[in-house]
Amino acid sequence: MSAATTAPAAASGAPVDGSPLRVGVVGAGVISKQYSASLARLPQLRITAVSDLDTERAGALAAEHAGARVLPLEQLLAADDVDVVLNLTLPRTHADIALQALAAGKHVYGEKPLAMHVEQGRQVVKAAAVSGLRVGCAPDTVLGTGVQSARAVLDTGQIGVPHSATAFMTTPGHERWHPQPDFYYQPGGGPLLDMGPYYVTSLVHLLGPVQRVVGVSWRPQQQRTIGSGPRAGESFEVAIDSSVAGVLVHASGAVSTLVMSFDTWAARLPRIEVHGTGGSLSVPDPNHFDGSVQVYSAASAPAPSAEADHEANWREVGVRAGYVGAGRGYGLADLAIALGAGRAHRASDEVALHVLDVMESVQRAADTRSTVELSTTCERPEAVGEPVDLTAAPLHHLST
User: Fold this and answer.
1) Could you read off the pLDDT of 66-95 as tens digits, one per residue?
2) How far apart are CA 112 and CA 87, in angstroms?
3) Which domains are present in the chain?
4) Residue 305: which pLDDT band, with cuts at 50, 70 and 90?
5) What is the pLDDT of residues 19-30, one digit of tens each?
6) Of the candidates 250, 227, 231, 242, which has an alpha carbon nearest to the alpha carbon of residue 355?
7) DSSP E strands: which ranges in 27-152?
8) How many CB atoms lie within 10 A of CB 365?
């Protein structure tokens, strides 16, 4: 059970008067720019320190936030003005940094995945529970108006009882745009661990936890060529399977089909669709916070005909729920609000561990050609029940 479910006390030195949660950022790489932009406009959070092996890069990030300073990791973890560590390091160090932060009495919010392996993730979840601290984990895209509006459609029964879903992420590979893409093709990378968290987390929010999986995976290319940056034209070895497909059986009885690929040049596939006894639901790209949500109603479907215009029966839903104008870091703001309200935060370690278990189990099922029962579960996170603008009120004015 996640520490979040027992509403743990705040970390030592954490504000209790509704002032912002003070954030120490560890890792000032590419993704930090998106977090920096979000945190700058969120009154629930304030960056006070930055740590990175590249001190020049850390200084550039710190300069974007008044009063923030550059510190070595050890000093950041010991700082009295850091309540929560925002862990934006590479996946292989996620668990280690989280454990160090928890040992130092800090809450943690990290980039996905929670850890490289489920057993590492269990250590993080256990350490949080023992210490009474919070651990949150990306993706928080599921808290935006896209997935949350889609969830509102499901929860109000507009497509009947949901029984299945499809989720597709197909791309020719990140080496075409990323200047340092090697880690995407090493253990801990690949389309499943890199992009899978967005899709699997969305499926958990929409349909609940998963009980068992089957899977297959393949590797069409043994080498990749970098397409941009100072290493453009350089080739490197592929050490993991670059395409994975899985079937997920949810505890609810619904079945999801998942396809993740770095080997597809073009595809006319939906990102996520959910199908029910009374219709279908089109969910926008879960790598984004918003997007078009559409519903196909069985009640208004055209009569059977070779010329029936089924496409015309899809209807735009509009924004019904979720954090409006959200960006990366809104899951951390939700954690800050949850601390003040004494409730569980939505982008929790419990969910992140279960999502990691789903992905690891799909790969194990592919490797062993078997069905794999999951060893974890989680509560379906609480919905963001109506559109909420987190920039409009400080921490102590919100209990959403």
Assistant:
1) 999 999 999 999 999 999 999 999 989 999
2) 10
3) 3-141+326-349+376-397 (3.40.50.720), 142-321 (3.30.360.10)
4) low
5) 899 999 999 999
6) 250
7) 45-51, 69-70, 84-87, 107-110, 135-137
8) 22
